[in-house]
Amino acid sequence: MDTSSITPAAQATLDRLNTPSKLKGSTQSLGQADFLRLLTTQLSQQDPLAPTDNQAMLAQMAQFSALAATTESGATLEEISTKLDRLIAAQEATARRMPPA
């Protein structure tokens, strides 16, 4: 692709989109924004006379959706676990304060 025909505004947008994502914790992970960056870059760089296969693109989107759902489920289960731990701790504290019957 000839980059001399790209306007400064378009180049600034491409530079922003191509900025690597930040590390989350100690491991690298890709998020939804990264997927959208990859998708828009892929679409902007494809040959208009030979576009990307629709089935391949739909498969990629389905895989990302499944990954996002799994990640969200994991976060929800972690939240439930934390709340249950707090509930158990509160019940144990209450049981210790009650006089024996």
Features:
3 helices, mainly alpha, 101 residues, elongated
**Number of helical runs?**
3
**Shape estimate:** elongated
Category by helix and strand content: mainly alpha
Average residue-wise pLDDT: 78
By DSSP, the count of extended strands is: 0
Q: What is the alpha-carbon Rg in Å?
A: 24 Å
* SSE run: HHH
Q: Which percent range describes the beta-strand content? A: under 5%
Task: Please write out the topology.
Layout: H1 8-17, H2 32-45, H3 54-97
Describe the structure.
This protein is mainly alpha-helical. The protein has 2 domains: 1-22 and 29-52, no CATH class; 53-101. It has helices at 8-17, 32-45, 54-97. The longest helix has 44 residues, at 54-97.
Give a summary of the structure in a few sentences.
This protein is an all-alpha fold and 101 residues long. The protein has three helices and no strands.
